[in-house]
Automatic annotation (TrEMBL):
It comes from the Eukaryota. This is EFMT4 methyltransferase. Transmembrane segments: none annotated. Coiled coil: none annotated. InterPro entries: Lys/N-term_MeTrsfase_sf, Methyltransf_11, SAM-dependent_MTases_sf.
Length: 134
């Protein structure tokens, strides 16, 4: 869910020259491709975060910034998430887990409090160790 954020370009400028960004909006991806055409290490793809088209174990790092927040936007009680939102979160995180290489790192930048996200991230099936930084 890269949207029109400059994060991918900023990472490129910091020396991360192999960055793949996705969004479900074809118009958004077309605009980002055009905006950053001069950066060949930046790749753009139209994709649904619940069904990533990447092979298993294909990324060292998966970074999301606010994309998972969208899955929870209609939730009225963060202590009791609806079964639909919990299932959507599980599906996305399973995809993240699938595309990460062994020893890979998932970085989630969110507005949510850590105690609301930890139950989603700490599922045994993912085998992730968690660290929180403010």
């Amino acid at each position: 869910g890269c949207g029109n954020s400059a994060l991918s370009h900023d990472l490129h400028e910091l020396g991360y020259t192999d960055v793949t960004s996705i969004d479900f909006s074809p118009a958004c991806i077309a605009a980002m491709r055009a905006r950053y055409a001069r950066c060949p290490g930046l790749r753009w793809a139209v994709m649904d975060i619940r069904a990533l088209a990447f092979p298993d174990a294909s990324f060292d790092v998966v970074l999301e910034k606010g994309t998972l927040d969208v899955l929870m936007v209609e939730e009225t009680d963060p202590w009791h998430v609806s079964p639909q939102a919990a299932a959507a979160m599980r599906r996305v995180l399973a995809e993240v887990s699938r595309v990460l290489r062994p020893g890979g790192c998932f970085i989630s930048i969110t507005f949510a409090q850590p105690h609301f996200r930890k139950p989603h991230y700490a599922q045994e099936a993912f085998g992730w160790s968690l660290r929180h930084a403010a």
